[in-house]
Design a protein that fits this description.
The complex is a heterodimer of chains A (114) and B (113). Chain A is an all-beta fold and 114 residues long. Chain A is built from no helices and 12 strands. In chain A, strands 2, 5, 6, 10, 11 and 12 form a 6-stranded mixed sheet that branches. Chain A has a 4-stranded antiparallel sheet with strand order 3-9-8-7, with no helix packed on it. Chain A has a two-stranded antiparallel ribbon with strand order 1-4. Chain B is built from no helices and 10 strands. The chains are: A mainly beta (114), B mainly beta (113).
């Protein structure tokens, strides 16, 4: 079945540092790829997405490129802020027997210190 | 319009009691999902509704768990004879279907004593 693997956290950075959170996937179809973010005490919300190979999703300074050759969708940000502290989930969605059940990674906690 | 709402936001119950959790999806969204998020864990898929099709129940952990969606809108997740291991945050999400973006509710935090 489909799967998503994310780097384990927590990732601890100082403000203005460069961020990379690795995400790789396995899928039998042609998935769309997502990053969701969960801020403390809140529900998940979409951060960015990409629907086909070589697409780049971007939002709030975060970027991720759909790399089919390496089956990866790494999340990057050039300069993190304290307000970026949250849990980040990589996910994929593809059709499977007529059903669209997304597969989520286990989440990576990011802690940004001032 | 309004986002996905869930109620109650918190629920404390005694072991062995039944609980009902409610989800109001975004109007017009045909797909609705239930997930469970345990402390420090990722999202565990429970059940998926798409339009008028039979729900995909492949993620339900036991026959104590059931869900229904009335009129293609509101959904209720029922846990019978709750156990302490059922303690978790239960998340609901809705979408336009297919591979479209999911919109999550704030969750119901369930504690079984």
């Amino acid at each position: 079945g489909d799967s998503v693997t994310q780097m384990e956290g927590p990732v601890t950075l100082s403000e203005e540092a460069f961020l990379t959170i690795n995400c790789t996937y396995t899928a039998t179809g042609y998935p769309s790829l997502f990053w969701y973010v969960q801020y403390p005490g809140e529900g998940l919300q979409l951060l960015l997405k990409a629907t086909k190979a070589d697409d780049k999703g971007s939002n709030k300074g975060f970027e991720a490129t759909y790399r089919k050759e390496t089956t990866s969708f790494h999340l990057e940000k050039g300069s993190v802020q304290v307000s970026d502290s949250a849990v980040y989930f990589c996910a994929l969605s593809a059709a499977s027997g007529g059903s669209y059940i997304p597969t989520f990674g286990r989440g990576t906690s990011l802690i940004v210190h001032p | 319009g309004a986002g996905v709402s869930q109620s109650p936001s918190n629920k404390v119950t005694e072991k062995g009691k039944d609980v009902e959790l409610r989800c109001d999806p975004i109007s017009g969204h045909t797909a609705l999902y239930w997930y469970r998020q345990s402390l420090g864990q990722g999202l565990e898929f429970l059940i998926y509704f798409q339009g008028n099709s039979a729900p995909d129940k492949s993620g339900l952990p036991s026959d104590r768990f059931s869900a229904e969606r009335t009129g293609g809108s509101v959904s209720t997740l029922t846990i019978q004879r709750t156990q302490q291991e059922d303690s978790a945050v239960y998340l609901c999400a809705s979408s336009r279907g297919g591979i479209e973006t999911q919109y999550f509710g704030p969750g119901t935090r369930l504690l079984v004593l």
